[in-house]
Sequence to fold (167 residues):
Amino acid sequence: EEGITKLELATYYQGIADWILPHIANRPMVLVRCPAGRRKECFYQKHPGKGTPDVLRQIPVREKSKTEPYVVVDNVAGLIALAQISALEIHAWGSRADKLESPDRLIFDLDPAEDVAWGFVVQSARKVRELLQYLGLKSFVKTTGGKGLHVVAPIDRRHDWDEAKEF
Fold:
């Protein structure tokens, strides 16, 4: 609806590579893909299918009863491939591919209801950051692909997911 082409998206991804790659590289990801544009049908994609570009590395991830592949981006070519497959949202895991069961970041997802004002979401993110700072954790805020904010707190890789979720 904005008239942005895949080439323009790829150029944008290339331009922000130095900022985004440290946050997504070597992490499994879930993508929101919108092949016909954001206002048309979009879908979440956890597992790469046929035709996934080779520059998107795939790693096996053990799920409840089976092992499935996930996509990992390692470089600018991977970012550009995300544009090619119309990935408009990039949701990176809180752990790295080499040690999936040891998260290195906590992500607090502030995803408001339709009737919640944006100012309240921003105020809430500030409060979460203040609490984390009080507990000795540094954090940063990033926008989500949708309508909310993520407060992200890097942590040491010495806890498992159950401990991270309990926190």
